[in-house]
Task: structure prediction
Amino acid sequence: MTFDSLYYDIGRLDRLSYRDTFVHRLDPRIKVIAAILFLFTVISFPKYEVVALAPFFLFPVLLITIGEIPALFILRKVLLVSPFAVLIGIFNPLLDAGTVAVISGVPVSAGFLSFLSILLKFILTVSAALLLIATTSFPGVCHALRRLGFPAIFVAQLLFLYRYLFVLMEEAMRVIRARDMRSFGTRGTEMKVFARLIGTLLFRTVDRAERIYHAMLSRGFMGDIPILRKYHITTIDLAYLAMTIVFLVIFRFFRVTEGIGRIAQELFR
Amino acid sequence: MHMADALLSPAVGTALWAGTAAVSGYASVKLKERIDDREIPLMGVLGAFIFAAQMINFTIPGTGSSGHLGGGMILAIILGPHAAFLVMASVLMVQALFFADGGLLALGCNIWNMGVYPCYLVYPLIYKPLTGNSKNPGRILVASVVSVVVALQLGAFSVVMETLLSGKSELPFGAFVLLMQPIHLAIGVIEGVVTAGIINHVRSARPELLDSIAASRPLDTAISLRKVMVTFAVLAVITGGALSWFASTYPDGLEWSIEKVYGKGELPEDEHGIAAKLKGIQEKTAFFPDYNLKSAGKEPKKAEAAPAWPGADAGTSAAGIIGAAIVLGLILLIGMGIRTFRGRNAQT
Result:
């Protein structure tokens, strides 16, 4: 995957976050808290747990459908970042080979279960993070962080980072294009040239920061970035949070999946 | 080397988040003391610069493969440790949210591994003493390479420790270390050379840039360094406290990793420890505890395979698989139902 497509993906996530659905209208703080609770619950399952994780897919599925987010786009992004978790987990089946169950004649090792568990947790946690940003705008998340007690300086420069991400990425793309036009093959990609290109980009960046600062000063910048949109936590927000918590508690502490399976076994016997 | 949520246990994730939050608070306070407003846009735009710089690749000599810039060290050299730390934290946060690199819980670990080490350990303790106030390119080269290598080694080793303490991966300590450290040694040398190249270029073309930002804001060495060390001591106590709580709550997790460290302990024994704990949790949380006996009694053939791992006998796992299939089917139905319902609403 090239960085260009990463860049376009950011733009796409950003556009998704400006939709107007039930999920998008919820207060950012509530969504951040709900996402963190969800992550914690998923992570807190013991390492061999597989089946109890199944109900938790309801959370991303509901966000995707109600928030009208393209499911394949999220899925593709999840797959793209999977290598590290897969690399670390893939040794489990080899190292932890004790057989724990035989399912229709195929022996299943403990390591396979823990590997499967890592994969499921990976999909759940990564999609939850992506969906948080796809249903809440990045400025919304920043605002939530500020209200949840993150330092003001941190949040202010985080907003700047986001704002200028797109500008500087376009600048970098111009640099790359100019380099590619003047060189063939791998010529022009030596480390020496690279260091100078980056240095030049750095100069432009610092100069830009200076211009931005002057422009902001003339508009009355006092070291803090006010937001125009006012957020209020409504009863709907609280109800959403309460439902999330109830959902998490039920599926964390009661083995619902197995219960359903047993009832089904009894029924079809 | 981004740490991933799926490999973390809640205790390790929380401990590292607490440490990161404390350092962020410290950095913000330090910055507020002497910052002028000018620096806020500069920090943000430099964060964006790190992303932009990562788009440009270069050829690694002798290999033909390409690399790109990591970031932490160069930020520390340009901005000084406090501002650099906050910028690095923001860069990692944007990566976690938009690129799904790592995850939100693992963000604490990632900021620690890639922010705290270069900005608060390596920069004041290695880079500064090595370069002094020298403008000699050779000296900057040596200092950069050593700094980046040390920072990356510390980071990579932390990834290993965090993963092992979480106890989700079966990789033995030795193999894991051998997997991580050499790769990051190579990356570190190359990144160090590139960092030095950039700094030297800046030094020759626009020397006032480095002097105005970093040198006019030196670490005010004596006082600040001591404070840094005090903060570290406090953090170590907090982290240690959290970890010992973790150790007493889940003794097998820590024992397991210690056994790996000493190369003793056999896997089967381990399994008993973890399985026993699992069984305890299962007994506490069992949905219909008596069903277990029933189905085990009804299906004696499948139950034979069970004893190796008391947590999941065949009866349980069959019910689990069926249940999971039903639950996932239901979730899919709900999702598709909402989508078609919405589609219909949109048409009318």
